[in-house]
Design a protein that fits this description.
Layout (H helix, E strand, L loop, with lengths): L1 H17 L2 H8 L3 H23 L8 H24 L5 H8 L2 H12 L6 H20 L8 H26 L6 H16 L12 H26 L4 H7 L2 H12 L7 H19 L17
């Protein structure tokens, strides 16, 4: 019981911290590539300390596993670039709501790549989520998010980020023998290599405030969050972890409302609600009328 409680607290903390990352990115007002590069640098340093402390680097890694983890790192970095860039085109709430379509993309990729069974209920929830994305995309200026074309670009970026995250998750599922902390370490190291050519390394920040933001992004939003999240997932059942993961979008909506004073339109609220309800339905295996009797429900893996 105490182990599950600790896992629940760790999961809650990681989701609550993650929910403020959009506010942090906007407040930092730094080039996305620079912010991500230093996130990877300081995140790698933090994860390296954790891996060494846990003795996870004593054994060598097979080349195939290392290559797969690196490929997942490419997908994860592209995911970060797209979702961070989306914040400047649309509100943090809308970008996050659209980003939460990634469980459905994960299910679809699982069916295509891993031959996992796709039931009628899952297809139904996929359609509900798609309808939510359509509502969000059609809303355009309802939330005060700039011109219509730019708003749509932000929505598409968030969708692209969700797809890349799903690809990274599929790859991680094929790395059963590798500790999650080590996978994360490999991924952020790949991020350093990928982002270094585009980062402004010849004009390094000279003020302590900017370095503090880079340090916080790497240590808190990467090293700490990854450590808390992976530790929690080892202690909690999938349904409990799925339920606690909804703390993330809730915190995002609260931050967007109280910090940025952004009020969503009726269409945006309806679309965001449809996406989150569909995600909950997928997580907990809720039945849909007319579909549950035709196909057995399977838990989301």
């Amino acid at each position: 019981m105490q182990t599950r409680l600790r896992g629940a607290l760790e999961m809650s903390a990681s989701m609550a911290i993650s929910g403020t990352i959009g506010w942090f990115v906007v407040r930092a007002d730094l080039p996305v590539v620079d912010l991500l590069f230093w996130r990877c640098v300081f995140g790698a340093a933090t994860l390296l300390v954790v891996c060494l402390a846990l003795g996870l680097l004593r054994r060598g890694m097979p080349r195939r596993s290392l290559a797969l983890a690196a490929a997942g790192g490419v997908a994860l970095v592209v995911n970060w670039v797209l979702i961070f860039a989306a914040f400047s085109y649309t509100s943090i709430s809308i970008a996050t709501a659209v980003y939460n379509t990634q469980p459905f993309m994960l299910v679809a990729l699982g069916a295509l790549v891993l031959s996992e069974r796709l039931t009628g209920t899952k297809v139904g929830w996929l359609c509900v989520a798609f309808a939510g994305v359509v509502l969000v995309a059609q809303a355009r200026n309802g939330g005060g998010d700039g011109d219509g074309a730019g708003y749509l670009v932000g929505v598409l970026m968030a969708l692209g980020a969700a797809f890349c995250y799903a690809v990274a998750a599929i790859i991680a599922k094929k790395l059963d023998g590798m500790a999650p902390h080590v996978i994360a370490l490999v991924q952020v190291c790949v991020g350093i290599v990928l982002l270094a050519p585009f980062a402004h390394l010849r004009a390094l920040p000279t003020d302590a405030g900017t370095w503090g933001m880079h340090l916080a992004m790497g240590v808190i939003y990467t090293g700490l969050v990854f450590t808390l999240l992976y530790s929690a997932l080892q202690k909690l059942s999938t349904p409990v972890a799925g339920a606690l993961s909804f703390i993330y979008p809730l915190v995002v909506f609260v931050v967007d409302f109280f910090v940025f004073d952004r009020r969503l339109s009726a269409l945006q609220l309806a679309g965001a609600a449809a996406i989150l309800i569909a995600a909950a339905g997928m997580t907990f295996g809720w039945p849909l009328p007319g579909l549950a009797r035709r196909a057995p429900r399977l838990p989301l893996k």
